[in-house]
Amino acid sequence: MAAGFLEFMLRRVAGFAGVLLVLALMIFVLARVVPGDPARIALGPTASAEQVEQLRDEMGLDDPLPMQFVDFLGGAIRGDFGNSLISGQPVAQEIAALLPATLELVLVTLVIMLTLGVPLGVLAARYRNSAFDAVLRIVSLVGVTMPSFLFAILLQLGAAYWLTDWPILGRLSRDFAGFEGPTGLLVLDGVLTGRFDIAADALRHLAFPAIALAMSGIGQIMRITRSAMIEHRRRDHVQTLRSFGVPARVVTFRYLLKLSAIAPLTIMGLEFASLIGNAFVVEMVFSWGGFASAGLEAILQKDLNTVMAVVLVSGGFFVVANLVIDVVIGLIDPRIRIKESR
Amino acid sequence: MAAIVEEQVEILSARRMAWLRFRANPVAVIGALMVATVVLAAIFAPLIAPFPDHAGAVIDFRNKHAAPDGTYLLGADKVGRDVLSRVIYGFRVSLLLVGGVLAIAVPLGGILGLLAGYFTGWVETLITGFTNVMLAIPPLVMALAVGNVLTPSLTNAMIAIALLWWTWHARLVYRVAKSVAAEDYVEAARLAGASHLHVLCREILPNCIAVISVKTTLDAAFIILFGATLSFLGLGVQPPTPDLGTMVADGRQFLPEHWWGVLAPGFAIFFATLGFNLLGDGLRDMFDVEV
Lengths: 342, 291
Known about the structure:
Chain A is mostly helical.
């Protein structure tokens, strides 16, 4: 069994490494066909032709393309993406400084998605075709179809008119400016350093962006959980449990939910791609100053080195999230890891 | 009496049954009406819009940020243009984008899906492998990168989105084609000497039409959403063309006082995506397919 699980994981890792490789190739090709010389972008219009030529040489832009790609890939594996064409600072450092802000936002979003989406889905299945179920259907439909920027703006507008104390921009109040903790995740840092006022303030700032980001996912997870619960309820072994007189509560949470968790988890893995995309939007609306905001800025300024790094790191985010989800699913459901390892 | 009822049931064609099922579904009908509203508004924009010239680069500072009233039903924007007129023209841009993306993505994804589902061996491995890799790429991030490399414009937004969108169609058509290809009548057609092309186009493709049309309708919703997000971030249609996402981004600077400049285009996007989504759900129930 252990060997089967190992093989299952190895296959997954290999598959995801392939994904990242193709992604790297695509973004590299894309960056190299761009009209406009990266060295010229870095130095600005006033630089002389010799200066540009010198920088081209330093950046290896005159090498054959396959060699450039190998260099790029080697650097990416070591975490070296070259220097930003705009600020001149190493891209990896800039991204590393901004990553915690995004990571914190995404983690809180995931917690909200799961803690709301799954129980609501269970309830919707339990009270199927009731008024409650109908309301939840509408909520999930709104979540899926409403643009996340509109939802974010509505939250801000609501706060501006009715909840004037609530923070709607940034990660911390001005009173705590300059606070730095060991992890960069402000809520965690606040708790670790015993500054619970900071942790609470950071949580208040997190609430709106995270809710705006979670909306579409909550809807999806709710819908999938509901249909999975309904489907599994009809299965023989569940019927057997019920006929033995096992209480409905135990059947639901101990047996049904475990089975039904697989579908929403899988969806969450796929949803993660759009979650990263929406993070760009939500971070912009709430001036979050994270990795996604920086990526957007880099894209608008044609800072190619940063763009390449942002795309690859986003892909990495997606891949790691799916890997984690695969492990969890494999642990929940042995049938899957046995089937996959064959 | 019973005999008569039975006879009537027999007369109903499959298409008529589907139509009845559709009509009996209030959600689908509402969706269809919403979609019809958007499409008609887009087509007849010059006739419906109160100020058709406000879709262009008109400047009227006297009415800058005019609040919604009798003249400007949804208020005016930062240079005094009627927001309602611009929203109506904005539907045009959204639908053009949808049309453009689907015109590229559906045939491309459909053909690749058909080929992968029908042929086994390396064709299948190659296409499904490539599709899976493409599906793992965060679409918005990639579209932003592509949209940046190409200069932001409607055509380039279409290309950027279509380059990612075909994958979903490929996967879906692959799934259906693969199961249809195993049917006896496909085998029979092959044994009767039908060419690969004939089998693909006449035996397998017709079975995929229902799935493709449901998926395409649902897609319209998400392409509108996706396109609006791109232009909200500044990488879509450029001014003065009225684009709903751009209008939201522009109006955002004047919140919270001049909320109409943001909420009108914002809810217009929501209206369109909701309509296509409801219609797509209705069609799914009608054709009884899984998308």
